[in-house]
Specification:
Chains A, B: This is LacI family transcriptional regulator. Two copies of one chain form a homodimer. Chain A is an alpha/beta fold. The first copy, chain A, has helices at about 5-15, 15-25, 30-45, 50-60, 75-85, 105-115, 130-140, 165-175, 195-210, 220-235, 245-255, 295-310, and strands at about 65-70, 95-100, 120-125, 145, 155-160, 185, 215, 240-245, 270-275, 285-290, 320, 325. Chain A has three domains: about 5-50, Orthogonal Bundle (434 Repressor (Amino-terminal Domain)); about 60-155 and about 295-320, Rossmann fold, CATH 3.40.50.2300; about 165-290, 3-Layer(aba) Sandwich (Rossmann fold). In chain A, about 45% of the residues lie in helices and about 15% in strands. In chain A, the strands form two sheets. Chain A has a six-stranded parallel beta sheet, sandwiched between helices. A six-stranded mixed beta sheet of chain A has the order 7-6-8-9-10-12, with helices on both faces. In chain A, helix 2 crosses helix 3. Chains A and B meet through helix 4, helix 5, strand 2, helix 6 and helix 11 of A and helix 4, helix 5, strand 2, helix 6 and helix 11 of B. The first copy, chain A, binds a DNA duplex through helix 2 and helix 4.
Amino acid sequence: MKRVTIKDVAKRANVSTATVSRVVNGIGTVTDDNRDKVQTAIKELNYFVNTTASNLKKNSSNVIGIVIPTFTNEYFMELIKGIEDSFVYSEYVFYIASSKDDLDKEKEILQKFRESNVEGVILLTIGGNESFIQELLKMNMKIISVERRVEIDGGIDFIGENNVEAAYELTKKFLSEIPYRDVVLLGGYEELSIGHERIEGAVKALQEKKQEYTYLNGHFNAKISEEIFPDIVTRYPNGCGIISLNNTMTEGVIRAIHRDEEKDYSSKYPVASYGKIKFQSIFKNNIIASVRQYPYQIGVEVSNRLQNKIDGNASETVTKLIRNTID
Amino acid sequence: MKRVTIKDVAKRANVSTATVSRVVNGIGTVTDDNRDKVQTAIKELNYFVNTTASNLKKNSSNVIGIVIPTFTNEYFMELIKGIEDSFVYSEYVFYIASSKDDLDKEKEILQKFRESNVEGVILLTIGGNESFIQELLKMNMKIISVERRVEIDGGIDFIGENNVEAAYELTKKFLSEIPYRDVVLLGGYEELSIGHERIEGAVKALQEKKQEYTYLNGHFNAKISEEIFPDIVTRYPNGCGIISLNNTMTEGVIRAIHRDEEKDYSSKYPVASYGKIKFQSIFKNNIIASVRQYPYQIGVEVSNRLQNKIDGNASETVTKLIRNTID
DNA sequence: TTGTAGGCGTTATCAT
DNA sequence: ATGATAACGCCTACAA
C-alpha cells in the first residue's frame, strides 16, 4: 500500500501541493473554499504528514535528546517529569537514552543525536567525554549539562544543585545534634561533581567543628553500602554517626541497620542523608538529618533554559543552582 | 556554517557521491585506494551522516516508540531497562513518551509516532484509544501492547502478567495464613486489565474459601490508600486482613500503619500485596504474602518479540504471559 | 491567492 | 568498480 502524500491530496482537492502544504502548516494565505477542499481530501485519503521529509526540508527535527545514566533512578525520573511537564512546544518530542554508566555508550548516544539533528541535548554525564562534548559545542549544538558538571574550556550551561553548600549544612546540623561522637563519612563518585563537591562540603563542616572522621567509599550504591555497615559496627561497636552523601547509600545503610531486629542500632548509629529515601518518615529515628532535593524543579529550569536557547535568547553561558533544604 | 554533506566529501576525495555512500554504508564495491581517500576526506571535513535524509530515502527511521503512563514508576523503568538491554540492533533508538494517564495525550503520541515513521511501538495503554489503535494496526504499524491489554478485534500482540492467576494464588496463600478474619480487598483501575483481572483472581479465591470481604477502591494510588486506612480501622477496630492489589497502594497502607508508633497495627492488620515495595524485608511483619513481579523479564520478551516483527518473523498475533511468583 | 519548480542530503538503479 | 541521476516527501521562493 503506497503512502499517501501531499501530491495525492493536491490532486484530489484540485489544488497545488503548495496549497496543501499551506493548509497543513497553517501558514500563508488560502481561501476558505480551498481550505475546506483540502481538509476533506485529507480526511478521505487519511493523509498525515511525513515528519522525516518535513524535517529534511526545514533542517530541523523537533527532537530533544536526553542522556541519563540509568532509567531505574527516581531522581532522574522526577527530573524528566519536570522537563516534560514544563516544555510547552508541543511539536517537540523527547529521545531518552541511557548511557548505562558507560562513557563509550554516552559518546555513541551523543553522536547519534548529532546525526539525527536533535535541536537540543540534555546531558547527565557519566564523565570522560569532555573533548567530544566540546567538539559538539563548537558545531553549535545546544547542550545543557544537568546535575553533573562537565568541566570544559569556554563553559557549558549547567543546572544542578549546590552540593557543597547542602552537604556543609547537612553535616553542620548533624554534628550539632550528635556531639562527642565518632563519625563515618560515606561518599563515592569522587570523579564526578556530585561526588567530590559533597565531600568537600561535608569535610568543611567537619573541620570547622574539629571533628575527626573515617572516610568510606560506598560508590553511591545501596548494596555496597549495606555490606559496609558491619565494618562500621566492628570499628565503632559503641556507635557512631554516619553521614551518607547519597540517598541510595542511605537506603543500604537503613537496610543493614534493620537487618537484626533484636539489636537496636537506631540510637547508636544515627544517620545524616544527602537525599530522601522511601518511607523516610518511618525511619525518622534513624535518619535525623537530611537534604531535600528538588529534581522536578531542576527539570523545570532545564526546560525553560532549553526553550530560551531554541528561541535564540541564550547568548551567555549560564550556571544555575537550585537550592536544597535541610530537614 | 554550512553543513558538510556527502557531496563535499566526494569532491574532496575526487570520487562520486555514490562511492562515498558505499564507503559510509559499507555496501557495494569500492577499491581500497578509493576507500582510503574517502575516509580521510571524511575525517578532514568532519563529516557525519544526516540521518533524516537517509531515513527519507530509505523510508525508515530506526526509531522504536515507547508509550508509558508516567515516568515515575519503578515497574515501568525496569521494563524499559529490560527492553533496552536486550535490544541488539544498535542502530535503533528509543523515543519514550509519557501519556500522563491521559488518553488524548496517548493518542497524540501515537499520531506523532506514525508521522515519524517509527518502526515499532511498545504501548502501555491508559485505555480508551482502541479504535485509533486499530486504525494504526490496519496500516501495518508494528505495535506490541504490554502489561495492559488492548481489547481489539483481530487481536494485537500482548506481553504481560497473568494477573488473574497471581491474584488468586496470593489471596489463597493469604487466607490460609489468617483464617477467621475479616478481609478488605483494596483494588482499583477496574477499567484496565491490570485492575479487573486482579480483582477477578482475588474474588475467585475469596469465594472458594467462602470468605466475606469489603471492597474498597484505592485507585492504585499511595495517597488515597493511606487515607483509606483510618476508615478500615473504624470499620474493623479489632483488625482485618488487607489484600492490596497493587504495590503503590501497599505503600500507602504501610505508611498509614506506621503513622502511630505506639499503636501496634502490625499484627492486627496483616497485608497481602500484589507487587513488592521498597524495604519489604523490613516490613515483613506487616506484609505476610506478596506477588513478585518480573518487569525486566517482560521487557526482554517485548524486545525479542519486536525484533522478530522487524525481521518479518511474526505473522501470528501473540499473547505471552510471564509467570509471577508468590512469597 | 495560487501554482511551478528547485532543492534539502541521501540512496540505489542503471549505464559505463 | 564507478559515476550520473532520479527519486524519497516536503517546503518555499518566486512568478503569475
